[in-house]
Each structure stands twice: as C-alpha cells, then as structure tokens.
Amino acid sequence: MRRFIRFTAAIAAALATIGSAFAAADLQQQHADALARIKTAAQQRTLAQTMAKSTCYLMAGVSPQMQAEQAFMASMMFDDNASALLSGGAEGITLPESDASTLAALARISEVWAVFAPASRQVMSGDFHAVPVQQLISLDPVVTGHLEDVLLLLDGVYRQRLVTRQEMVNTVIHAAGQSMLARKAMKELCYITIDLMRARMQQDLRTTIDQFDRVLAAMETGDFDLGIADPPNLAAIKQVMEIKTLWAELRPVLERGLLPEPPDREILAQAAELGDSIVALTDGMLALYLE
C-alpha cells in the first residue's frame, strides 16, 4: 500500500513538473509572440515612410534606381508584415489577431493602403501623373496616423503578455521610431526641394527634427517621461554615439530645407546617404535592445 502511495505521489509530482514545463513554454511563446507583434507594427511606420520618401526621390530624379528598389522592397515587406499581424504564421507571430479593436484598426490601414500602395507603385514605374502624386501626399499622414493607432493598441493588449522587461516596450517603439523619423525627414526635404506642398512640409520637417533630437537625447541617458530605458550594454552605448555623430552631420543638411531658397538635388543626395546610414545604425541598436 505504501509503495502504491509513493508511486502515486511520484506520478503526481512528475505530472506537476510536466505541467509546469508546459505552462512555462506557453508563457515564453506568448512573450515571443507579443514582442514580435509590437516590433513588426513599429517597423510598418518605417516601411511606409520609406515608400513615401523613395517615390519623392524618384520624382526628383535623385538615385532613381536605388530609390525604386528601396520603395519596392518596402512595399513587399509592408504587405508581408500586414498579413502576419492579421493572420499570424510569419515574422515570429504565431496566431491570428483576436482583439476586436486591433482588427478594426488593421482594417482601416488595409482600406487606405489599397489606394496608397497602387499610387506609390505607379510613381515607382515612372508615371508622375498628378493623381497618384496627390494620393501619396494626401494619404501619407492618414497611413501614418493609422499605423500609430495600431501600435498603441498592440502595446495595450500585448505588453502584459511579456514575461520580462515590460519596460522595454516604449524603448523598442521609440528606437524603431527613429528609423521612421529619419525617412520622414528625407521625404519632407525632398518635397520641399521639388516645391510640392512646401509650407506644410517645412512645418512637418521642423517637427520631425525636434522629435528626433528629443528621442536621441533620451536614448543616450534614458528618459523616465518617455519610458525609454538606459542603453543595456556597451555595444548599445556605442551605437547611440555613432547615431549622434551622424545626426550632427545630417541635421544641418535637413535644415537647408527650412531656408527661403529650396535646396538642390546634391543636398537631397547627401541627405539620402546620411539618412540611410542612420537607419542602418538605428536598426542595429534596436536589435541590441531586443537581445
């Protein structure tokens, strides 16, 4: 009888251990899924701004082949990410989205994207007709607003599913946002250069520069108000310093767009080279925060 009791207890303990292991694995899967959703949604902002920037550079005739390739790749990645956010099965996202508010927000993006994406592809092909260009300009802030809405919703729904380092969510969002702001600033400088919506773009460019400045300073030392954590290691500190050095070169180039006389194409090319370098460094820094 005692042997039976001990045997039963051993079985119960083993089952409890197995159950705990499955529970822990499930939590880790939820953690990975939540982080992947937030990261993917944050990346969508950069991809949309890459398309907006590159199509303008195409119209300006600056590095047309490279810009067409960037716009095409961004468009493909955006579609892949949108599918993953909705249905799962890719980009580290395991399950379909189930939150009703998030589904509604994703549907709003899809509706606008159904016009924005074909317009951008039309410009990519070299058709600079007024209709697709106007669609790009008018829908750009709408797409940006909807993408920010989705990111906020995902933050609210999925942050609590992170097993550890929930405080890193804001840091990840802002770090990814620096890539978006760099692309956005290049786009605004481009539209100023080709004299389309110049007053609006100059106002937007001032705001974008200020936003990048503020977040960059916060990334260097941490910022409680923005919810940005200190750099997690020496490699991340070095990455921030390299971004700071490049930004010190890019900022005055961008500010040429705030002067009464529009900048020339050489300034646009210089901004593209520096901006692409900043985006690469920012993406690398984001990877360090996610380690």
TrEMBL record:
It comes from the Bacteria. It is a multi-pass membrane protein. The keyword Signal applies. It is found in: Membrane. Its main location: membrane. GO terms for cellular component: membrane. Residues 1-23 form the signal peptide. Keywords: Membrane, Signal, Transmembrane, Transmembrane helix. Residues 164-258 form the NarX-like N-terminal domain. InterPro entries: NarX-like_N. This is NarX-like N-terminal domain-containing protein.
